[in-house]
Amino acid sequence: MKKICSVVLLFLVGLVLCISFTQYNVSAEEHLTAARSAVLMERDSRRVLYAQNENERLPMASTTKIMTALVVAENCQPDEIVTVDKKAVGIEGSSLYLKEGQRIPVCDLLSGLMLRSGNDSAVALAIHTAGSAEKFVQMMNDRATSIGVVNTHFANPHGLHDNEHYTSAYDLALITAQALSNDLVRKTVAQKSAVLHEDDSAINIYNKNKLLSMLPDADGVKTGYTTKAGRCFVGSATRNGMQLIAVVLNCSPMFENSRSMLEWGFNNYTMTNIVAYNKPYKPPEKGTRVYFCPDEFSYPLKSDGSENTLIKKSFEKLPDGEGYCLNIYLDKQLIFSRKMVTI
Fold first, then answer.
1. Which of 55, 36, 53, 38 is nearest to 265 (CA)?
2. One of 62, 111, 258, 298 is an active-site residue; which one?
3. How far apart are CA 213 and CA 325, in angstroms?
4. pTM for the whole structure
5. 95 catalytic, yes or no?
6. Which residue ranges make up each domain of the chain?
7. CATH assignment of 37-269?
């Protein structure tokens, strides 16, 4: 009887431990952040690895400047000289304390924008790029539409509060993924410090992004704060060929939570090569013709291998004898499609 009781007791203890462990794992995933809204996204594929109220429209403070930097970088040369307009002087909030008539290179003002969050830098760059801040804001909204966002509208280039100025965590992750595809933006946001050349003088500026010191693999992106928006942050890090983007809106421990989200992503997902460059394929047709996919394709999959068997490849015959398209599915979701070539 004692032996039976001991076995039952051990079983019950094991069951309790098992249940506790399971609950811990679930809660750890469900509560990665205290943010009101959050997203963890892989940059290249735009796959969302974690989300929390990701489509809620919220103010985003100075994380706005990620879009500002992208529009500037796509429309200006880094060495162009900006003459500071009087309308860019004395902007409230974070400032570089620019003076009317100062002449500063675009690349330096971008550093001032993204490292020190200069609202005056945002307006100076906007006027230089589009002729006026109003025209620049229209460029921001047009570019946002082209990226595919649906819950975003910009009213200014700096992020000071406006009821018509908002985004969602998901949209902001998409915008950031596009911005990090731009060499100038990517290099700018990865800097811990920079030198700002103003006319004949130079000053050192330092990045407000503490994640760059908290996480060895961190390489961006932007802080933000207003009373209405709360603490907002977009962070990025690259490890083993995978760059992850963490967005938190209205989150007091924004650096700590972003680091936790990024580490969770790296621990649970691996960038997996699915289509090799110029690998030969033989679609199901008569004959000996061999096709090649002109692009390599990798995708973030769960590190435990549970998604590997969900990857399916199919060949879609194109009309009018144009050959085949290679389609890759994760379960039933199309994640890659390319027209194949033959030699």
1. 38
2. 62
3. 45
4. 0.89
5. no
6. 37-269, 276-342
7. 3.40.710.10
